[in-house]
Amino acid sequence: xxxxxxxxxxxxxxxxxxxxxxxxxxxxxxxxxxxxxxxxxxxxxxxxxxxxxxxxxxxxxxxxxxxxxxxxxxxxxxxxxxxxxxxxxxxxxxxxxxxxxxxxxxxxxxxxxxxxxxxxxxxxxxxxxxxxxxxxxxxxxxxxxxxxxxxxxxxxxxxxxxxxxxxxxxxxxxxxxxxxxxxxxxxxxxxxxxxxxxxxxxxxxxxxxxxxxxxxxxxxxxxxxxxxxxxxxxxxxxxxxxxxxxxxxxxxxxxxxxxxxxxxxxxxxxxxxxxxxxxxxxxxxxxxxxxxxxxxx
Length: 297
Hints:
By secondary structure, the protein is an alpha/beta fold. Helices cover about 25% and strands about 25% of the residues.
């Protein structure tokens, strides 16, 4: 059963988000004849099924909730996890920056708890597919359960194995590495990614980023971008709008690049500067100045 995002009313089998006081929320799948229970009270699923989205309902003791269709961000934030997951602020930027869309084949390594896998599976649609590699089977087991929970598991092929041996796939549209040492696998990435495709990765420290940039340039990747996303909410009060007291700040450095095909004798010199040896040496000098120690998570 897939995650339904259409229609004006709640139906049996739909995922529903219950939002109560202080924005406390729960996501449930509606099944006739069953109940939802929390410390705020009990709600019969039958009392939700058939109601328009946005309706207010009450627990047996009067505790109020609104009923909504959950967004992708809601689902990602409620993902059951045994590893650190990517935040929606990063995932949204990844999807847009890597041109992820319907019908594509997306490859990732480092399944983790499956939050990014879920987003990829949702965006590629029923005609696309996602292949996800993970070296730890106990970790991937939870990711599979998370994808089944939202009805997207049929779009994902999970594979257990070490990507040092290379990927079985070729000519994929986009490839994302969420591993501690992506710079060790850029040759394997190059073999799996179609020419001109999209590469992305996330890293927690700048010295890891420097190693990755150097590896990308050695393997003829160009148009490299390094960035981070910072998210700040504001209090929605017309007479006293101001930032909330806490914000989601640095969560990781995002790195994007595109593999290119070079013909130095025919190419413009300025364009080639993106992957020239001098640029590689400049990065190597930075890494050497920072020392050889790399923090791995």
